[in-house]
Amino acid sequence: MKSTVSTARQKAASAREGDFVTTATLRVWADVLCPWRWMGHRRLAQAIAESGVPARIEHRSFLLGPDGPGPGRRRIAETAAVEWGMSPAEWGSRRDRIEQAGRADGLAIRMDTAWALDSRPAHRVLKLAAARGLDETAAWEAMFAAHLRDNLDLADWGVLAEVETGLERDEVLALGDNEEYVAEVLADHEEGQARGISSVPTVVHGDRLLAGARSVGELAEFVRAAAKAVA
């Protein structure tokens, strides 16, 4: 379940500095439902590039709604009112803050019309992509965009099969007919809870955790510290 973010510039910088010769492995717990995690996904890639050190990401599943959404099929704006008890003004303020932050990272996030859904099928698809040796970082990017930008219904296996994860359509549809990777997704979630993770994104190296929406600078410093720890 590994994805390497590496560029010629990084390698050259590492060779020049000579301090960071070992690849640091960063474990990232995330849910595809989380807009802050999409921003974190982009920022972490940028932070690794700017840090000048080699780093590898292990993607882990974390379920913000482990029991799934409430009854009925709702968009997020309706869920905010019916299930979260938010007034239109409260939700509007939160929505605008998220969407503005996304634009600063070059992301077109549409919160009102995103679906409230069970993210476990999407996580299972991502596990399958990892097992096939596909680019996990690209697969996660595609899944974030499908949910948060395109507002696709990722609870529908036919829709999931069209997300550009690198998998064949028939592979994804077959996954919907069995229980493959259900246990792996749950194991990731439970491991995250055991580590004290309660929000995403959370980046972990050894016993160090960096949680929440962090800047590129903060993430780059975390990456450098991780590389020093394993040098």
TrEMBL record:
Q: Which ranges carry the DSBA-like thioredoxin domain?
A: 25-222
Q: Which InterPro entries match?
A: DSBA-like_thioredoxin_dom, Thioredoxin-like_sf
The record's Gene3D superfamilies line, in alphabetical order, gives: Glutaredoxin
Q: Which GO terms describe its molecular function?
A: oxidoreductase activity
The molecule here is called: DsbA family protein
The taxonomy runs: Bacteria, Bacillati, Actinomycetota, Actinomycetes, Pseudonocardiales
